């Protein structure tokens, strides 16, 4: 359809071009001209996306580290036929970090989704003070993650307000207990990112035509039936986008954990990002980091592709 | 099925009064049109009947029962929206079955009732199609079918025909009438199109600026408008209204138009104007088909002189736009003998002339002629 119309308009433009002068010639040459317009952006993209990616791929097939004293482009001297990937496959620290990351994703994202959905539903109808509450609900999202980390670091101290208000003794530790540290991180992440879910889901919910909701009510549908059968199905795309966005963000979670626990106690909260951080700056094992990074990229791409393919399907 | 009584209903939005002191009695099975210009409060009235808005004052009774504290879901009111509000993410079947499903009707009943309604509405061929793929005309039918399938106590239609193309609109108009007879349902129909209202409704409620102007059968409203607004709103081609100052007393009354034309009034119309109190003047209303050319037919008929400004063909008839001292009068030309620029004598049939007070708009009737 679009191809057809663009063909038609192109042929129209060329027809006109034979009769008229300058502007129609610009139209006809538009394609060539356009290429020059996007060229700087493409060059920039190659420089900041494609090139580092290829460089990483290249390094990941070697034993190269910055301590070798060999420039990176001579890393081929220690080419190892992909042994880094073999090491990766059998690296328990990597798999443990991946598992912890998955735990955060699988607990935090659904929690954020349901909380956000519930909040959004409360905000469909107008009520006094709606604008004020709206701003309050959105505030956590605006705070810098590192600051959120510090806030929750303080809140979860043994003598901190959380233990105080729950009546727990100072010896009941959150951040220094291997089991509870991950829970603390999930709570902090949920606190910060539920507002984003709320914001996206509210936009989706407000996009459901109000007269359809009215019609459903007049037909006798209860609020729950109408929510389940009218609102939710119409929000499929928005929900997919929100969840994919949060899953990917969760996968990359770093600053919050870095401040709260630095991955500890031990490695109890060491996610993929922290694992990579340690490997990069503590072990200087850059070739291996390249391999891990690419593996992570593939996982993330699969998540995004799966989620967003559903969006594309819904559109049609 | 249900009768509806609207008793002294007022609706205010803040300072703005959308509907004021409206009272209408609708009998069971009646087809009533709420007619008025945009923003007159007719949709607000409909929303109040449906329960989408709450009346500020007054009450609305269904079979004598006040439903204002019944949730919308339990009122069982059929409502067809102006843009149909079809559930576009569902199939046609699901749209039709929605009202039954949410009311826990047994599965096998749903299937048979949906099939029957689809057949009635000519939608059988597209039952499994996504509702979004339907044409506007089919959506209209689906919207009506979806509301009708739950057998609502009353049926409300909010300008249901305004989005249709002209041909289908005429078809749908007669279809609606047939459907109403079949369902035997009380129907309330909101429209700003007086032709729709005239052709469909058993009774018309004409509303202007939130107030009920007149409530009656189409013929009653047409032949006997109770004020200048109703006279002007109902009828196509429009009624002619000759505004001017009324001079003189019984017997030799005159209406002097702004353009300076003097119209001598006799008989009934003259005595009608005897009731005129306002200083702003009066107004004579006469429908185009009640104007004739040639020989004077009755002694009281009003004689005017003007020239033909424009001729307009409307089907087999021809409308003549006559200019009388800068006042335009439209007449039906039965003889088809006039041409532009002609100077003609023409007559207003006296017993069809209506007298209005120009200030209040009220109809003036003088009793004994």
From TrEMBL, chain A:
Work out whether the entry's keyword set contains Transport. yes
**InterPro entries documented for this protein:** MetI-like (IPR000515), MetI-like_sf (IPR035906)
ABC transmembrane type-1 domain span? 98-307
- Give the main location: membrane
Concerning Pfam families, the annotation shows: BPD_transp_1
Entry's transmembrane regions: 36-59, 102-124, 136-156, 196-216, 237-260, 286-308
Concerning Gene3D superfamilies, the annotation shows: MetI-like
Q: Where in the cell is it found?
A: Cell membrane
Q: Which UniProt keywords apply?
A: Cell membrane, Membrane, Transmembrane, Transmembrane helix, Transport
Q: Which GO terms describe its cellular component?
A: plasma membrane
Membrane topology qualifier = Multi-pass membrane protein
Q: Name one GO biological process term.
A: transmembrane transport
Q: Which family does it belong to?
A: Belongs to the binding-protein-dependent transport system permease family.
Name under which the protein is recorded? Carbohydrate ABC transporter membrane protein 1, CUT1 family
UniProtKB/TrEMBL annotation, chain B:
Query: Its domain of life?
Result: Bacteria
**Keyword terms, alphabetized:** ATP-binding, Cell membrane, Membrane, Nucleotide-binding, Translocase, Transport
Identify the Pfam families for this entry. ABC_tran, TOBE_2
Transmembrane residue ranges: none
Which cellular components does GO assign to this protein?
A: ATP-binding cassette (ABC) transporter complex, substrate-binding subunit-containing
InterPro entries in the record: AAA+_ATPase (IPR003593), ABC_transporter-like_ATP-bd (IPR003439), ABC_transpr_FbpC (IPR015853), ABC_transpr_MalK/UgpC-like (IPR047641), Mo/tungstate-bd_C_term_dom (IPR008995), NA-bd_OB-fold (IPR012340), P-loop_NTPase (IPR027417), Transp-assoc_OB_typ2 (IPR013611)
Mind listing the GO molecular function terms for this protein? ABC-type ferric iron transporter activity; ATP binding; ATP hydrolysis activity
Which stretches make up the ABC transporter domain? 4-234
Similarity comment: family membership: Belongs to the ABC transporter superfamily.
Q: What is this protein called?
A: Carbohydrate ABC transporter ATP-binding protein, CUT1 family
């Amino acid at each position: 359809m679009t191809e057809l119309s663009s063909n038609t308009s192109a042929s129209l433009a060329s027809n006109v071009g034979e009769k008229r002068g300058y502007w129609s010639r610009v139209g006809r040459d538009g394609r060539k001209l356009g290429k020059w317009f996007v060229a700087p952006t493409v060059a920039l993209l190659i420089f900041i996306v494609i090139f580092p990616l290829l460089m990483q791929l290249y390094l990941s097939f070697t034993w190269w580290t910055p301590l070798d004293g060999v420039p990176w482009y001579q890393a081929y001297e220690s080419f190892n036929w992909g042994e880094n990937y073999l090491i990766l496959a059998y690296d328990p620290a990597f798999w443990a970090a991946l598992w912890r990351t998955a735990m955060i994703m699988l607990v935090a994202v659904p929690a954020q989704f349901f909380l956000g959905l519930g909040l959004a539903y409360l905000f469909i109808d107008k009520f006094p003070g709606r604008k004020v509450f709206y701003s309050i609900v959105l505030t956590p999202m605006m705070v810098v993650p590192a600051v959120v980390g510090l806030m929750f670091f303080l809140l979860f101290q043994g003598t901190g307000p959380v233990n105080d208000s729950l009546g727990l003794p100072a010896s009941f530790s959150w951040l220094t207990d291997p089991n509870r540290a991950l829970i603390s991180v999930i709570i902090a992440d949920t606190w910060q990112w539920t507002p984003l879910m709320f914001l996206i889901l509210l936009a989706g919910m407000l996009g459901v035509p109000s007269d359809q909701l009215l019609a459903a009510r007049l037909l006798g549908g209860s609020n729950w039936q109408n929510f389940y059968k009218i609102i939710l199905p119409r929000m499929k795309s928005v929900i997919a986008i929100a969840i994919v966005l949060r899953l990917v963000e969760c996968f990359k979670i770093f600053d919050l954990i870095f401040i709260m626990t630095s991955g500890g106690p031990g490695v109890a909260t060491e996610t993929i990002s922290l694992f990579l951080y340690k490997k990069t700056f503590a072990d200087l094992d850059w070739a291996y980091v390249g391999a891990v990074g690419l593996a992570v990229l593939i996982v993330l791409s699969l998540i995004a592709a799966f989620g967003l393919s559903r969006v594309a399907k819904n559109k049609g | 099925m249900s009768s509806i009584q609207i008793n002294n209903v007022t609706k205010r939005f803040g300072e703005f009064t959308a509907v004021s002191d409206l009272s209408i009695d609708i009998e069971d099975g009646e087809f009533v049109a709420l007619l008025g210009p945009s923003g007159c409060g007719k949709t607000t009235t409909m929303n109040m009947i449906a329960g989408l808005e709450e009346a500020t004052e007054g009450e609305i009774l269904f079979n004598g029962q006040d439903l204002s504290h019944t949730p919308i879901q339990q009122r069982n009111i059929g409502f067809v929206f102006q843009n149909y509000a079809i559930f576009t993410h569902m199939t046609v079947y699901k749209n039709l079955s929605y009202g039954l499903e949410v009311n826990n009707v047994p599965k096998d009943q749903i299937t048979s009732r949906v099939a029957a309604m689809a057949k009635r509405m000519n939608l059988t061929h597209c039952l499994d199609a996504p509702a979004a793929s339907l044409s506007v005309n089919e959506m209209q039918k689906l919207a009506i079918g979806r509301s009708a399938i739950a057998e609502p106590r009353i049926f409300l239609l909010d300008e249901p025909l305004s989005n249709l193309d002209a041909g289908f609109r005429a078809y749908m108009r007669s279809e609606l009438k047939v459907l109403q007879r079949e369902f035997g349902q009380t129907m309330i129909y909101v429209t700003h199109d007086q032709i729709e209202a005239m052709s469909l409704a058993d009774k018309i409620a004409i509303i202007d600026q939130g107030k009920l102007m007149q409530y009656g059968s189409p013929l009653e409203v047409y032949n006997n408008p109770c004020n200048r607004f109703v006279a002007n709103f109902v009828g196509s081609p429009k009624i002619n209204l000759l505004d001017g100052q009324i001079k003189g007393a019984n017997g030799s009354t005159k209406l002097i138009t702004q353009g300076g034309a003097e119209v001598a009034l006799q008989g009934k119309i003259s005595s009608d104007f005897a009731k005129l109190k306002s200083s702003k003047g009066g107004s004579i209303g006469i429908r185009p088909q009640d104007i004739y050319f040639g020989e004077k037919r009755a002694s009281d008929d009003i004689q005017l002189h003007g020239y033909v400004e424009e001729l307009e063909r409307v089907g087999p008839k021809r409308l003549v736009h006559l200019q009388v001292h800068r006042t335009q009068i439209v007449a039906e030309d039965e003889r088809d003998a006039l041409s532009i620029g002609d100077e003609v004598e023409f007559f207003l049939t006296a017993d069809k002339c209506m007298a209005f007070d120009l200030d209040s708009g009220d109809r003036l009737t003088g009793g004994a002629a």
